[in-house]
Write a sequence for this structure.
């Protein structure tokens, strides 16, 4: 690879695309980008106890009421994000190509692989590199991030000696220029190690600019590095021995096995995986010695001094950081105490969340298991305006995310349960699969919420796999706020819910989803149903509020009632809400978390309105099987009278509730007839006929 960067000031501009890099002119711009599309949406006000009303823009004609067009992320479900195709070998090749000093100052470049964003008004993303300074540390993520961000990377030439505050001025000049052109567009600063110090310092000095910081093992803890005792030894080391230093440091900075695993497929057999890993590791290890060329002796010592001054400068200004911060910390970082630093910054910064990667090393962005875009999406940190819009800022799951979730993380869970999906055609016939579900929205799924929402994962997978349909699940707001996260918060089920379409259950969110012809999942029973007590399996806790029926009628949506059974074949409830309320310590904990949680049913009396959160104590059972039945579609476009006639709406509401109960009764009867309900029988069948036939036996319709 032949790469050259033009010798031009960082804030002025640069040249054409060269060898995989595209130089970027930062100023002047011919014209600012369009204002945030989120701001062009009409303000929507929805009442649960009154008519659905919409406050329209003053110049909007009345005949298009309910048809507001909003620019949204123009990406299809399971689009190809390119993640996983680039390896550490490409990093070394690119770093070697641009590390040749051209005598120029620090400057920005746009990676050609990032391309043009596929979404309107994509936010700007500035990558601030680690100690190497080459700016290629994001190379594994260029393509995936480039679909939804305008990506630029800072390159600091190998012999550049710009002090820390000088680098801050270069970055500040760029963000001030961009903010002046698009004041409503957020600017993301991705700070890797030393770049984390730069990002925090820029945020502290510019609280008036809308910044979002993504910090990866920030070097604010450099004074506590385990390498401190040997730094004087490095400075005294003879030049002819220096070639060994970067090679040794590479093993301290990152995990070679994690780096090599990036290019290893996830669906290989154990022997194939071992062979592929061996080949990848063998080809990668010789490249580590090239760090001596990327970071020469004098440059390394300068960088160490820069790290020391940068960390001190940043730590003295942490109190002034107002920006949103997402901190990615590695538990196996041998260069910095990143876990302990995450604890400190989590407490010190006003608005900081953490994602902890316990098995990764310092070079997290170059290692397997960390898809940066997925982490941002899971933490609900992607936005295109000043406030995140859960409807228009949502990004669909990518093909690599789908494979990671359902072909790896949830694979054994789904194999053990072998879910059966049934749907009902318009003529009432029940068939295997989702043929009875419409292909076009708006569609509103209304059903039973199983214990702990255990039914969700197979449901999401099947709709994506069979129909490439995203189900936007309405969930309790507590799942999205991050109030109960810790400084060692690992990627969790809550992140997965957000990635696959979950959003807070509010009338306005539901209104705007149906307005955009989307597929919406609603559980009228809410938390009370999902966290039911002993002896309440398959019991509905629906309040007497038919407003979702009227809203569906307003948009001519299709309502699909559905039932689910199987939780009692998988889990046994040991300690429920009533049991825990009788234990003093647990009672106090339940009361404390519910005092802080947003209330969603204060107006509903009785048990239907009891939405207290708690964590039930569960014991696993030998797995049975999951069964789903999607009932006959109910076309609301033929029921315009329901919008204003509460009595008619209530009749439809009771009909839907009855259909859900009938679906569960049907599934309970039919599973008794299923010869493959037992995992033992399914295992025997799979052993005889192969696991790919797992869904073809045991049809219960």
């Amino acid at each position: 690879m032949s790469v050259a960067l033009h010798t031009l000031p960082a804030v002025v501009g640069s040249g054409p695309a060269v060898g995989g890099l595209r130089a970027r002119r930062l100023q002047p711009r011919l014209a600012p980008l369009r204002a945030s599309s989120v701001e062009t949406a009409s303000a929507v006000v929805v009442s649960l106890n009154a008519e659905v009303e919409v406050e329209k823009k003053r110049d909007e004609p009345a005949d298009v009421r309910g048809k507001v067009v909003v620019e949204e992320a123009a990406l299809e479900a399971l689009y190809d994000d390119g993640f996983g195709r680039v390896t550490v070998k490409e990093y070394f090749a690119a770093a070697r190509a641009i590390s040749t000093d051209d005598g120029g100052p620090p400057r920005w470049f746009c990676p050609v692989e990032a391309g043009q964003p596929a979404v309107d008004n994509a936010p700007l993303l500035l990558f601030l590199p680690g100690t190497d300074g080459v700016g290629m540390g994001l190379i594994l993520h260029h393509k995936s991030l480039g679909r939804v961000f305008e990506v630029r990377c800072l390159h600091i030439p190998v012999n550049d000696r710009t002090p820390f505050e000088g680098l801050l001025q270069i970055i500040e000049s760029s963000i001030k220029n961009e903010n002046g052109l698009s004041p409503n567009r957020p600017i993301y600063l991705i700070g890797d190690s030393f770049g984390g110090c730069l990002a925090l310092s820029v945020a502290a000095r510019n609280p008036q600019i809308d910044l979002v910081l993504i910090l990866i093992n920030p070097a604010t803890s450099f004074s506590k590095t385990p390498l401190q005792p040997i730094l004087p030894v490095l400075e005294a080391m003879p030049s002819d021995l220096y070639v060994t230093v970067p090679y040794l440091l590479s093993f301290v900075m990152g995990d070679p096995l994690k780096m090599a695993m990036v290019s290893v497929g996830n669906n290989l057999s154990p022997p194939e995986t071992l062979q592929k890993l061996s080949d990848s590791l063998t080809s990668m290890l010789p490249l580590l010695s090239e760090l001596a060329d990327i970071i020469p002796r004098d440059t390394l010592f300068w960088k160490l001094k820069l790290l020391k001054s940068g960390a001190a400068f940043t730590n003295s200004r942490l109190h002034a950081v107002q920006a949103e911060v997402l901190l990615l910390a590695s538990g196996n970082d041998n260069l910095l105490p990143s876990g302990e630093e995450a604890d400190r910054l989590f407490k010190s910064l006003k608005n900081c969340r953490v994602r902890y990667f316990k098995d990764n090393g310092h070079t997290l962005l170059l290692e397997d298991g960390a898809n940066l875009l997925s982490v941002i999406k899971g933490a609900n940190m992607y936005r295109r305006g000043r406030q995140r819009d859960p409807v228009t800022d949502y990004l669909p799951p990518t093909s690599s995310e789908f494979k990671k979730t359902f072909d790896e993380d949830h694979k054994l869970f789904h194999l053990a349960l072998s879910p059966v999906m049934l749907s009902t055609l318009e003529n009432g016939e029940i068939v295997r699969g989702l043929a009875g579900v419409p292909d076009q929205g708006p569609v509103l799924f209304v059903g039973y919420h199983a214990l702990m929402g255990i039914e969700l994962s197979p449901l999401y997978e099947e709709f994506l796999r069979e129909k490439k349909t995203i189900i936007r699940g309405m969930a309790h707001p507590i799942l999205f706020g991050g109030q109960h996260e810790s400084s060692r918060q690992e990627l969790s089920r809550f992140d997965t819910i957000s990635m696959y379409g979950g959003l807070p259950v509010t009338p306005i969110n539901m209104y705007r989803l149906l307005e955009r012809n989307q597929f919406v999942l609603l559980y009228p029973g809410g938390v009370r149903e999902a966290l039911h007590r002993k002896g309440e399996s398959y019991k509905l806790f629906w309040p007497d509020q038919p407003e979702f029926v009227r809203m569906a009628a307003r948009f001519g949506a299709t309502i699909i009632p559905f039932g689910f059974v199987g939780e009692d074949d998988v889990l046994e409830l040991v300690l429920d809400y009533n049991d825990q309320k009788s234990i003093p310590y647990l009672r106090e904990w339940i009361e404390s978390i519910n005092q802080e949680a947003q209330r969603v049913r204060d107006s509903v009396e009785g048990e239907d309105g009891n939405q207290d959160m708690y964590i039930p104590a569960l014991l696993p059972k030998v797995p049975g099987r999951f069964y789903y039945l999607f009932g006959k579609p109910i076309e609301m476009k033929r029921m315009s009278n329901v919008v204003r006639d509460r009595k008619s709406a209530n009749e439809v509401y009771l009909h839907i509730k009855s259909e859900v109960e009938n679906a569960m009764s049907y599934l309970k009867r039919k599973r008794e007839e299923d010869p493959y309900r037992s995992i033992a029988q399914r295992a025997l069948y799979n052993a005889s006929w192969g696991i790919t036939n797992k869904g073809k036996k045991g049809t219960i319709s």
